[in-house]
Design a protein that fits this description.
Blueprint: H1 3-26, H2 31-41, H3 46-69, H4 76-96, H5 102-122, H6 134-151, H7 156-165, H8 170-195, H9 200-223, H10 226-246
Length: 255
């Protein structure tokens, strides 16, 4: 193995480590980290980077979900309705994508994320939340699925902050969010595998890194006190919003 190949494999494992850690820490898919690093850092084509991210997510997320479930943090009823809505949202997003100006949609989504981050930072929900109606959960799942399909990100960036704002505890929201993230990634990955679009030589070290880091993200999430975890997530939302806005392509209209 030459030095260039060894560096490439090491970079893939490192990218997977970061994505796996953040995925189980925040209840997101990790694609927001993986796709830019693969595309801009390693020079992998955007379509291939997205395919790699989804395949790695489909492999790693169930293990992250299991690590949270061992701690009793997953609400399976809530997660099931979110997952059901998410699958429908992925299909709807696929239909909408050719009709919508995605760059401007990304900018709008970035602004919504900043607003959610602000609510997480300043609003601390007290007491036990009222159980959310199944229809509200399905609609939230649909919104997350649409955004996931249109923007190429994990739906957890929508479900986690909104669940917290609606009164769900942050640890419960993070853990439960991984269920729809896993199902959405699995459905997308089946399509990718069917089309032969996944470069498996790169998918294996990426998924390996994500699997290794997932338990540490879970441990960190449950080690943090709820208020602190909320605020760490709020900062992560702002960073994600800046990343989405900067890479949206909408700024070319002002060039």
């Amino acid at each position: 193995m030459d030095a260039a190949t060894a560096w490439h494999l090491g970079a893939l494992v490192a990218t997977g480590l970061l994505a796996g850690y953040l995925s189980t820490l925040f209840g997101i898919g990790g694609g927001l980290v993986v796709v830019p690093l693969l595309h801009y850092g390693l020079g992998i084509g955007f379509v291939a980077a997205t395919a790699l991210s989804l395949v790695a997510m489909a492999i790693q997320t169930p293990f992250g979900l299991w690590s949270h479930a061992r701690r009793g943090a997953v609400d399976w009823r809530m997660g099931g309705w979110l997952a059901l809505g998410g699958l429908g949202g992925v299909l709807v997003g696929g239909r909408l994508q050719p009709m919508l100006p995605v760059p401007w949609l990304k900018l709008l989504f970035a602004l919504v994320m900043v607003g959610a981050a602000w609510r997480l930072w300043v609003r601390l929900v007290q007491g036990e939340p009222r159980p959310l109606d199944w229809m509200a959960l399905v609609l939230l799942g649909v919104a997350a699925g649409i955004a996931s399909r249109l923007l190429g990100i994990g739906g957890g960036l929508i479900t986690v902050p909104l669940l917290v704002i609606l009164g769900v505890g942050i640890h419960r929201a993070v853990a439960t969010s991984l269920l729809p993230v896993a199902t959405n990634a699995l459905v997308a990955s089946i399509t990718i595998v069917w089309q032969g679009a996944a470069p498996w030589a790169d998918a294996v070290p990426l998924a390996l890194g994500a699997l290794l880091a997932a338990p540490f993200g879970t441990w960190t999430a449950h080690a943090l006190e709820a208020t602190r975890l909320k605020r760490v997530f709020a900062v992560a939302l702002v960073v994600a919003a800046i990343s989405i806005a900067a890479t949206s392509g909408a700024w070319q209209a002002f060039g």
